[in-house]
């Protein structure tokens, strides 16, 4: 026997096909029909019914053998592969899928139970009327004989509504599929709008949520790419400027014609530029370390008012010529919190240094510390010495400066507020910036306890 033919025979006897189901269904209907005939004849002539059965006995036995064979094959395959029986029919797979999964979901459970119950009621009613009244008195047959037009209209209406229901389900899937295709092509503007069952509406809603999330991720990706480009540009500029100065002054110092006073002046400039470069590199390293997520907070019970006063005392000598004073107010004498003292000192120092850099001369910086429930709010206000034409959120981006000038006389890495924001967020807090005219305000909201 040909190998291909053997394979096909093996496949047939190890799989369930649509033809198997059709044969079983047809034989079942045929046997029910014979049973109906027997019941009808038996009601009037018992002996004739018995003779009828005897005359058809061979055919019935042959039919029963085929019926049993197909039923046995189906049961054997289902029992042998209970988890995933080999079924070579989409229709059969769909029926099994509906029966297998339909009871798991409340949206389909009730419909499936009603459908099976109606089918059983109709079958039992048909057999009952057939057994009690025969074909002549069968209520179903009598209805269509008495009302042929109405009966036909009734059947057509049922078929029409069945078709409409099936088409609605198909159209729902087509609409969702079309929307997903548009999303895959990059169209993220239009939402899916469906009127149907709660399950379909929820599906559309979930797809819209996924699409909105994907759109947000895409926009964030574009924004981050822009930030990356600006970061490289700003880093290049801020590293190149002091390096160029250092190289130039080193070349000047090589000249033997300069006086000792000039040499000392150039060495001081070199030291200042080197320190600026060191601060920038340290800030970059710290920002990278914080954003990596590998940093661990060493929390202790610390008085945040003491940290603020300590920072003011340490940096009050900066920009002395501007004559800027600080005023710290709080309803409490001490505000103890679970903080990483070193990290939080850095966050507060960045704000204090920024206030000194960008405040108008002969003005005051106001710092207010207030307990609000489970949080401590630290508000810092100062009058800016420049026009604040920036967006509040932009100030937290790396290398952002209030005066937006890379050539500003005010020195700094532009990473201060970004580092402050990251440190506060590590503590579970939040930072906000507001501007009112020339008044610059920054607010730190920190949880009192770690939990």
From TrEMBL:
The keyword Secreted does not apply. InterPro entries: HATPase_C_sf (IPR036890), HATPase_dom (IPR003594), His_kinase_dom (IPR005467), HisK_dim/P_dom (IPR003661), HisK_dim/P_sf (IPR036097), HssS/ArlS-like (IPR050398), Sig_transdc_His_kin-like_C (IPR004358). It is an enzyme of class 2 (transferase). The chain crosses the membrane at residues 12-39, 59-78, 112-129, 149-167. It catalyses: ATP + protein L-histidine = ADP + protein N-phospho-L-histidine. Residues 234-450 form the Histidine kinase domain. Its EC number is 2.7.13.3. GO terms for molecular function: ATP binding; phosphorelay sensor kinase activity. It comes from the Bacteria. GO terms for cellular component: plasma membrane. This is histidine kinase. Keywords: ATP-binding, Cell membrane, Kinase, Membrane, Nucleotide-binding, Phosphoprotein, Transferase, Transmembrane, Transmembrane helix, Two-component regulatory system.
């Amino acid at each position: 026997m040909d190998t291909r033919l053997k394979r096909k025979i093996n496949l047939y006897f190890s799989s369930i096909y649509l033809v198997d189901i059709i044969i079983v269904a047809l034989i079942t209907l045929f046997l029910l029909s014979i049973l109906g005939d027997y019941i009808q004849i038996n009601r009037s002539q018992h002996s004739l019914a018995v003779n009828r059965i005897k005359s058809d006995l061979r055919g019935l036995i042959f039919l029963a053998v085929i019926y049993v064979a197909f039923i046995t094959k189906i049961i054997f395959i289902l029992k042998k592969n209970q988890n995933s029986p080999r079924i070579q029919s989409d229709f059969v797979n769909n029926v099994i899928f509906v029966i297998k999964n339909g009871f798991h979901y409340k949206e389909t459970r009730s419909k499936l139970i009603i459908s099976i119950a109606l089918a059983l009621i109709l079958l039992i009613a048909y057999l009952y009327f057939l057994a009690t009244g025969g074909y002549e008195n069968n209520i179903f047959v009598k209805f269509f004989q008495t009302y042929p037009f109405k009966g036909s209209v009734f059947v057509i209406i049922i078929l029409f509504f069945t078709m409409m229901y099936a088409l609605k389900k198909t159209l729902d899937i087509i609409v969702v599929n079309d929307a997903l295709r548009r999303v895959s092509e990059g169209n993220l503007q239009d939402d899916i709008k469906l009127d149907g069952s709660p399950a379909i509406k929820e599906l559309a809603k979930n797809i819209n949520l996924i699409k909105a999330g994907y759109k947000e991720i895409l926009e964030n990706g574009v924004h981050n790419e822009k930030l990356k480009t600006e970061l490289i540009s700003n880093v290049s500029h801020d590293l190149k400027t002091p390096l160029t100065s250092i190289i130039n002054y080193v070349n000047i110092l090589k000249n033997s014609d300069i006086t000792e006073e000039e040499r000392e002046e150039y060495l001081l400039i070199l030291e200042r530029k080197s320190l600026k470069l060191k601060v920038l590199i340290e800030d970059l390293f710290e920002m990278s370390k914080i954003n990596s997520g590998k940093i661990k907070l060493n929390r202790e019970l610390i008085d945040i008012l003491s940290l603020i006063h300590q920072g003011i005392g340490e940096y009050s000598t900066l920009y002395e010529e501007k004559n800027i004073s600080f005023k710290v107010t709080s309803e409490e004498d001490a505000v103890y919190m679970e903080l990483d003292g070193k990290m939080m000192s850095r966050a507060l120092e960045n704000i204090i240094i920024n206030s000194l850099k960008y405040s108008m001369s002969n003005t005051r910086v106001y710092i207010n510390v207030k307990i609000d429930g489970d949080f401590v709010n630290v508000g810092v206000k100062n009058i800016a010495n420049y026009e604040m034409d920036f967006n509040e959120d932009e100030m937290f981006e790396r290398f952002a400066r209030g005066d937006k000038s890379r050539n500003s006389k005010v020195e700094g890495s532009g990473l201060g507020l970004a580092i402050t924001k990251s440190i506060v967020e590590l503590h579970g807090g939040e930072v906000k910036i507001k501007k009112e005219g020339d008044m610059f305000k920054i607010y730190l909201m920190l949880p009192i306890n770690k939990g």
